[in-house]
């Protein structure tokens, strides 16, 4: 095996993880996999590869929040016990390759005693081109041909020495070890990044993602914060290149992910500052469910000042620090204009994004927070107890994601349900709807 250890965190990465482990085995890299609370086949795929290339498989619970700062600290702690000279900081959808005409073995031998701390890479982002562009986990590295060269502020230095100082690595979200050209190897690696095997796959990954407050404060993630400001749409065909006709061409890279299209935002109405602040904010994707809970609370406690909000970004900005009750509903019960797969896709995307926006507000402003499923009923005594706990600060520390609930009777899955389940399935399972 190479004098190389790959370390990666994966959550719901079943679509690409098997191919990546094949790639890492081909390189001869020892591999540490951290499963970040997946609810798909990620764990079983990694477990089946124990010994080669997976030398260690760890489980890290998922709290409902994407916290890159925490992930990097965990990886840093693991790095202290690794004895190989080189580290490959891998993502489950990224495939690192040496320059044409050489091998990783030759490359690492060449720099065994050089002053190089890290290798820059040229990134090529492979994308589904249309709504019907859907690739199989067993063959996507052969069937995905359309890509864009991609470049962020710092070149991704996925390969670096284990003893490299990691202060700059922490500051750049694990992207870059050094900005000193004298410490960067002259050879540039190739990074093939498969963002998603379909547009629905990308929606499932990004529309429901909630980011930690400390990650947001560092301005990490760029336009990956899809739930906040973006729709996911087919990329502009004019910017896509085809691997079959030109090979990989690094010129004129883009700096933002092409499938994220900024949503139009109307002006947000300023909160009413003329009267007292509300005692409680009730918010959710489904206006009918939110209204029902708010009216039930008003009926049992008429003096309660309640503010009602939806999940529109213009609304969410004003949730503030008022105690927040998030009302959830199975997306299969929500109305959708029109019919067919497109209507289900829109319903799933709007529901997933809306849930994430309210959770993101809770993460950023840290109000007393609780989640209530409308399917669990509107028992006045239980609602009053939750309301009082929120208003008196007796709620437990914020942890997004309700525990599993008793099963809800639903129709069996069929093809008509597929777009909704593909996009929102992970969040639906988390909330007990599947």
UniProtKB/TrEMBL annotation:
SUPFAM superfamilies: Nucleotide-diphospho-sugar transferases. It holds the Pfam family Glyco_tranf_2_4. Gene3D superfamilies: Spore Coat Polysaccharide Biosynthesis Protein SpsA, Chain A (3.90.550.10). InterPro entries: Nucleotide-diphossugar_trans. This is Glycosyltransferase family 2 protein. It comes from Albidovulum sediminicola. The lineage of its organism: Bacteria, Pseudomonadati, Pseudomonadota, Alphaproteobacteria, Rhodobacterales.
């Amino acid at each position: 095996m190479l004098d190389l250890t790959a370390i990666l965190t994966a959550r719901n990465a079943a679509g690409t993880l098997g191919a990546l482990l094949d790639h890492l085995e081909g390189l001869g890299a020892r591999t540490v996999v951290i499963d970040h609370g997946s609810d798909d086949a990620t764990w079983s795929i990694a477990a089946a590869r124990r010994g080669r290339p997976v030398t260690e498989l760890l489980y890290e619970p998922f709290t409902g929040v994407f916290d890159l700062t925490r992930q990097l600290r965990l990886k840093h702690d693991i790095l202290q016990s690794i004895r190989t000279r080189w580290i490959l900081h891998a993502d489950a959808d990224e495939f690192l390759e040496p320059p044409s005409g050489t091998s990783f073995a030759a490359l690492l031998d060449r720099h065994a005693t050089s002053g190089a701390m890290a290798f820059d890479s040229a990134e090529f982002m492979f994308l589904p081109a249309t709504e019907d562009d859907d690739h199989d986990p067993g063959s996507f590295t052969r069937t995905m041909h359309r890509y864009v060269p991609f470049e962020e502020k710092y070149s991704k230095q996925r390969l670096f020495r284990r003893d490299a100082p990691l202060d700059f690595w922490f500051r750049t979200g694990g992207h870059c070890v050094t900005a000193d050209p004298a410490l960067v190897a002259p050879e540039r690696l190739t990074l093939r990044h498969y963002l998603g095997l379909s547009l629905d796959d990308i929606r499932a990954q990004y529309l429901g993602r909630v980011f930690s407050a400390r990650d947001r404060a560092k301005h990490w993630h760029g336009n990956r914060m899809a739930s906040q400001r973006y729709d996911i749409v087919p990329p502009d065909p004019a910017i896509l290149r085809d691997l079959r006709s030109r090979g990989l061409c690094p010129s004129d890279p883009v700096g933002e992910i092409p499938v994220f299209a900024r949503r139009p935002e109307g002006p947000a109405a300023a909160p009413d500052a003329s009267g007292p602040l509300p005692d409680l904010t009730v918010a959710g994707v489904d206006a009918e469910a939110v209204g029902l809970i708010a009216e039930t609370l008003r009926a049992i406690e008429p003096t309660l000042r309640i503010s009602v909000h939806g999940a529109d970004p213009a609304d969410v900005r004003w949730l503030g620090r008022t105690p927040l009750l998030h009302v959830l509903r199975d997306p299969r019960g929500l109305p959708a204009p029109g019919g067919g797969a497109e209507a289900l896709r829109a319903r799933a995307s709007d529901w997933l994004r809306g849930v994430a926006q309210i959770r993101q507000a809770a993460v950023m402003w840290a109000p007393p927070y609780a989640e209530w499923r409308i399917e669990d009923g509107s028992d006045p005594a239980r609602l009053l107890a939750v309301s009082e706990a929120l208003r008196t600060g007796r709620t437990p520390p914020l942890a997004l994601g309700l525990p599993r609930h008793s099963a809800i009777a639903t129709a069996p899955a069929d093809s008509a349900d597929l777009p909704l389940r593909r996009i929102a399935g992970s969040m639906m399972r988390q909330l007990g709807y599947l």
